[in-house]
Specification:
The chain has two helices and eight strands; from the N terminus they run E-E-E-H-E-E-E-E-E-H. By secondary structure, it is α+β, with helices and mostly antiparallel strands. A hairpin with a 2-residue loop joins strand 7 and strand 8.
Length: 149
């Protein structure tokens, strides 16, 4: 289990390859045992924030569309490197994002929202056409309607 020093915001994580490793813990890190992965490899030490959930209201509840959290891997040799990044979960997988990547993602989501509004307008047209067809069918089925009676 990691040993936290709250006064200096450091954490000592026992690792299987480097023994106890003391690292500075960012203010946003949850400091959970699973986040720091005690007993694992030093390269696996990860700082992570709480998740930010992006939800939508539907007729069947409020599902999470995407989830994001700040993350930092101080000893990794792989991208995105040692700097903090935003990890975004979509379709069951996590995708690291820089601030520029997040801006591109938000532009893409805005474009998707525009497309959904276009589809809503089209659905209005389809619904109105359906309602008009239903009224015509009802009038034809009722001989009293449509004769000026």
């Amino acid at each position: 289990m990691p040993d936290h020093d709250n006064s200096s915001r450091t954490v000592t994580v026992p690792t299987c390859d480097h023994g106890p490793v003391t690292v500075r813990e960012p203010d946003w890190c949850t400091g959970s045992e699973t986040t720091h992965q005690p007993g694992g490899y030093r390269v696996d030490i990860t700082h992570a924030s709480p998740d930010y959930e992006f939800t939508v209201s539907t007729s069947r509840g409020t599902p999470v569309v995407l989830r994001a959290c700040f993350e930092q891997r101080p000893f990794t040799e792989h991208p995105p490197g040692h700097v903090p990044f935003m990890n975004v979960e979509m379709d069951g997988d996590w995708h690291p994002h820089s601030s520029d990547d997040l801006r591109r993602l938000s532009e893409s989501l805005t474009a998707h929202a525009d497309r959904l509004r276009e589809l809503a307008d089209r659905l209005d047209g389809l619904t109105n056409a359906f309602d008009a067809t239903k009224e015509t069918t009802r009038a034809a089925a009722d001989p009293k309607k449509g004769r000026g009676d």
